[in-house]
Amino acid sequence: MNSSKHTELANHAWSVADLLRGDYKQSDYGKVILPFTVLRRLECVLAPTREKVAEIAEQHKDSGIDPDRFLRRASGHSFYNRSRLTLKKIAEDPQSAAMNLQVYVGAFSDNAQGVLERFEFAQQIKRLDSAGLLYKVIGKFTDLDLRPEVVPNHNMGYIFEELIRRFAEQSNETAGEHFTPREVIQLMVRLLVAPDGDALQLPGAVRTVLDPACGTGGMLSAMDDLITEFNKDATVEVYGQELNPESWAICRSDLMIKGQDPENIAFGNSFSDDGHARKTFDYMLANPPFGVEWKKVKDEVEHEHKALGEAGRFGAGLPRINDGSLLFLQHMISKMKPVDVNGGGGSRLAIVFNGSPLFTGAAGSGESEIRRWILENDWLEGIVALPDQLFYNTGISTYFWILTNRKSPDHKGKVVLLDARDQWQKMRKSLGDKRKQLGSDHIATVVKLYGEALAAADNTEHPLHDKVKVFRNEDFGYQRITVERPLKLRFEVTEETLAALEASKPIQKLPQAAALADAFKSLMDTSWDTKQEAWLALKDAVVQAGGTWPTGAPFNKALREVVGVRDPEGEVQLVKGQPEPDGELRDYENVPLGEDVEEYMKREVHPHVPDTWIDHTKTKIGYEIPFARRFYVYEPPRPLAEIDAELKALEAEIEGLLGEVTK
């Protein structure tokens, strides 16, 4: 089926909006159109065995035996409908349409009813009936031919995605929260599976696949298709979890029709209610929403982090509350199969991220610690930079992260960075923020280059040598050192000093505070180079005025804050014989992991600021992946003569245009 055909079918389904206008808000059209499309698809799939199933249901009506397995066998699917009713028959009796439709839906097997319940279908039946629209809507869908021989499962996915995209536009949502562009999925699954091609072709191959943010199930379907493309006899078991009820229902119905177990698609939040706890998988892939906060599940996530630590999913660290992307990655890593002593087992996973997880978070932060955990465990195989404007809901740059706990020997300790940002073609018509797409040639080019990345990076003659780079894991690590400079002060009494004295709480608590202020006035506009000189002069002034000099560290500290003034030529302040650091001059440097920090200071810092030192107690290890910086190519500015010539040409052109206007 070509794209125009599935667009035509989607248009037919969406034409129901003309009936709903006035009784429904635009943002609610999808609440009717999506479940009726699912219902019609289920009906078309079951049509060839409808009579046979109804007969068996009649035979077992009063037998006292649960006929479920007989009905499944008769239908040829994991679901069935016991009724002889059809949408066409229901539409022909407008007066009884609501009652008959409820009977018809109630005759479905429990798994199919569960799908329709997530759409709150019963409420829509009641609302449509009250508006006198139910039989008209049903009549529209009876004309929609969704038989599998006309609309294969793969193309049915396109129809659902097109309907969801329109629903999202009407309801001010983002379609990207529900599904990923198909060509992006194709690239993703091929990068994920390509290294395992030989193993997948072995007889009796069985593979499990998980998408913890599965939307309508596009990624799961693509993985199923690709694995069976390698081996048509392979068994592929797909699992997923989805938070959005409509997307969950569509994904589940798709699996039912394909003969997969719909119970493998869990409903709910993957963080707070893991639908696949204690399970592991051969492959995992996901496109979690970008930059979405995880405040709603904060208590559950933090509890698991603190109570279970590394025994739980989030032991490595917690990212900032406004972006849960790295939580998804940790969740997926926790479900990797262990590698056995013979090198068997293990998992591969791919996830779509924006640029934030590459570098957000300083050394010691949750994000940095998660990256450190991944790299130090040698799980990150590669990162692929994609073109911008590739997704429906964002035009920003995106990246595939590909991880595995069974790297090939030549990949161990290494990370591949592949720049595919120029692999795209312009779309004839934009869809939301999506203005670019990956052609089949682009997908083939990227998959091939990723497979030969190590050789391409080593071979300067390779045509795409500049598009791939290979680094050691530790190349992304750094030591964040704290560079201190000594506190240097001169001491003086001025109007500002007296004002600061009156504002100093530690000094104002003293009974002789007023006497101190009066005594200091006699030293107005006096300055000293050293603290000792200043303290002697101040103390003499207080004693001569008949006062007593306070003692104690709090007083001395407060007094220094009042009369001390930072001065690059001032006296270095000491604490236990060592220079006291000046917090206002404190700076930080990121030193590559493995480099001697003292040598770095001698080379990079001391020539400019010789009196600095490192506070080693504050050194932290951090990890970041500055992808764009690794591929940056310096472009020198154009010569001034060239720019000047261009400006003169523009001036001449403007003068010519103005001359024509004034004629």
Automatic annotation (TrEMBL):
PROSITE patterns: N6_MTASE
Record-annotated DNA methylase adenine-specific domain positions: 154-453
Source organism (scientific name): Streptomyces rubrogriseus
Gene3D superfamilies: 1.20.1260.30, Vaccinia Virus protein VP39
GO-annotated biological processes: methylation
The keyword Transferase is assigned to this record: yes
Catalytic activity: a 2'-deoxyadenosine in DNA + S-adenosyl-L-methionine = an N(6)-methyl-2'-deoxyadenosine in DNA + S-adenosyl-L-homocysteine + H(+)
Family of the protein in this entry: Belongs to the N(4)/N(6)-methyltransferase family.
Tagged with keyword Transferase: yes
One function term, GO molecular function aspect: methyltransferase activity
This protein's name: site-specific DNA-methyltransferase (adenine-specific)
EC assignment: 2.1.1.72
Sorted UniProt keywords: Methyltransferase, Restriction system, S-adenosyl-L-methionine, Transferase
CDD domains (UniProt xref): AdoMet_MTases (cd02440)
N6 adenine-specific DNA methyltransferase N-terminal domain segment(s): 9-141
